[in-house]
Protein: Ascorbate-specific PTS system EIIA component
Organism: Serratia plymuthica
Amino acid sequence: MTIKQLLIEAGAIQVGVKETDWKKVITLAAQPLVDNGYIHASYYQAVISNTLAHGAYYVFDEGIAIPHARPECGVIKNCFSMVLLEEPIAFRDSEKADIVILFGATDSNRHIEDGIRAIVDLLDNKERLDKLRAAKIWQEVVEIL
């Protein structure tokens, strides 16, 4: 299943989010996944704990954050969640990001190979990033993806 299909299935696309607290953004990104049985609440708590302990290693120069944790931290099914922020924010001590894609994978290999690679392939396109940043409703995001 593609990122687009997983986002739609989970109802996990949030657009125009106004939030300045990175912990709340991670919680917001995780909520539809918790509500729909993709992850346990322990998963996003692990993402927050890892960020506090190791920094926001998942923020990239293009303003993209890909927060995640290990599969054993509470992943039930492979999943993605997207939050598009109105204004970029720093995740702890990182560069600022306004495109946030939280993902969970059921095993470590898929975590790296499928999850991160799929996100990089999807977002390795400046025109697509610009369109995502301009989107006003989740249906536009689906069309862009």
About this structure: The chain has six helices and five strands. The two ends are 13 Å apart (CA to CA). The chain has one domain: 3-144. The beta strands are 13-17, 59-60, 64-65, 79-90, 96-104.
